[in-house]
Amino acid sequence: GENVEQHPSTLSVQEGDSAVIKCTYSDSASNYFPWYKQELGKGPQLIIDIRSNVGEKKDQRIAVTLNKTAKHFSLHITETQPEDSAVYFCAASWGNEKLTFGTGTRLTIIP
Amino acid sequence: EAQVTQNPRYLITVTGKKLTVTCSQNMNHEYMSWYRQDPGLGLRQIYYSMNVEVTDKGDVPEGYKVSRKEKRNFPLILESPSPNQTSLYFCASSPVLLGEQYFGPGTRLTVT
User: For A22-33, how does the pLDDT look when each residue is reduced to its tens digit (9 = 90+)?
Assistant: First the structure.
C-alpha cells in the first residue's frame, strides 16, 4: 500500500518568514495530493491540493509543488502569520478509495 | 450550515462495553470515512463507504464495525473496546473520491 513520510515533525519560524513542509510517497501511481490544516481542538481542513498533471499550485500565501520523478511534494507558506500555527498533514492517493496521510507537522509561528 | 457532526465528543468507557460513535453529514455526500488520530502516527483510515450499503476496510479496521443504511449516517461501532482503541476519532465525508474531505469535530475516546 501507499506510504507517506512527512518532515519535519515540528517546525518553528519567525513571523513573516517562510515555512516549508515536505512529504514523500511510495506509490508512483499516486495522483492526488492534498494538504490539511488542523487547529487545536478541531478536525482537519483542506487548505490546498494538487493533482499529478500539475507541478505547482498557488493560493495566496500557500503553494504546493510536486516532483513526480522524485515522488515528493511540498507545502510552502510565505509571510507567515500567527494564525498559521497549527498541525499540517499531507496525504496521497492513487485513485482508489483510500487516502493515506503523513504523520503531521506541528508549525509554530513565533511573534 | 454544511457540516459533519459526531456524537459523543468525549467518551470514557471500560474494556468490553460495546459503544457506538455516530456520524452524520448534511451535504448529501456519497463518500464517508472514519479515521483515528494517534500521536506520531497521523491519521489512519479505519473504514470507508462509497455509498449506502457499500463499505470497505481501511488500514486499521481490526476491532471496529461500521454500517451505512442511510446516506447521511455512518456510525462506528466498537463491539468490545480495548485500551489500545483509546484515540481521537474523526468522521469525514466528501462528494467525490478524490476531493475535499469534510471532517467532523472529533470524538476523544478513552478505554480503561
Answer: 999 998 888 899
